[in-house]
Amino acid sequence: MENSCRRAVDEDKFYQGEWLGQRNPITAGAALAFAGTVAKQKKCQNSADDIGELEVPGIPNVPSDHMENIERSIRERYLSKLASPGWDDEDPRLDYGSTALPYFIKAFHEQRDDQLQARLVRIIWHFRDPSALEVLGIALSDSNDDVWKDALDGIVTLNAERGMAILQEAREAARVADNKDKLSWIEEAIEQLSDRKWFE
Asked: Residue ranges of the domains in the chain?
């Protein structure tokens, strides 16, 4: 079991590290963290703990403190340009993997501009990570149409059982508020999720 898990982590780290590291040296550190996350998700005993000892062909080992540079890089490459008129929905997963998600969630909570919040919501759910559902639930309760509609898209896309619970809570809130437009959107989303199998 341990050998197969170690091999799986090594393969994940090589794929993420080689591909991402060639694009930006900082992302090599993100790749190592991503591989550690993969190991934990796969419940591989000891693999996540000794991930730093595994060597990736063509990529030097990156010290753990190098990860501190990732937030700075994310701010420079993405968050500082969020308000740009020429903004296109960038996909930071290509550069950082799932490591970047918490930084965008933090930015969402700190942001007060509705348009920028909506953009952050789109970035967040594009990570396709179920851990984003809680912040999407918060965004779904927002009064701005762009923010909650983007959150609704994300919840449906993630296709998770927790997402259904969030939608049901939001449906009740829309009924109480007599928000017929929002209620119709949420009911349609619930219908879409009901037609799917979760965790496919």
From this structure: 1-62, 77-200
